[in-house]
Design goal:
By secondary structure, the protein is mainly beta. The protein has one helix spanning 85-93, and strands at 2-3, 7-11, 14-22, 40-44, 52-55, 60-68, 71-79. It contains 1 helix and 7 strands.
């Protein structure tokens, strides 16, 4: 994985960090979702959640991890064309949460 340094962020009154994640272009390993091509599991939820994401070549994630009381709120943007990240990030960063 290629992950940039976390940057501080505030969205809708919640503070946290944002990171961009991509598959290392040199990675050749597979996972249960990607075979026969390269891939890696990225996130899995805890039961009873069935949240399960992996990443393959060309994909990019932007992950916002925001403090929300004693929990963490995650906003995830997943794209095939990384050039679209800024446009989608502007939407995410414009979110407002009820108090």
């Amino acid at each position: 994985m290629v992950v940039n340094a976390p940057r501080k962020v505030e969205i809708g009154g919640l503070t946290g960090v944002v990171v961009d994640v991509r598959l290392d272009p040199k990675w050749t390993g597979t996972c249960f979702y990607s075979a026969p091509g390269p891939g890696v599991p990225v996130m899995r939820g805890l039961p009873p959640s069935d949240f399960d994401h992996s990443m393959g070549p060309g994909f990019a994630y932007r992950l916002y991890l925001l403090a929300n009381g004693d929990t963490t709120l995650q906003i995830e943007i997943q794209v095939v064309h990384p050039a679209s990240l800024p446009e989608l990030a502007a939407i995410a960063e414009g979110l407002r949460f009820g108090q």
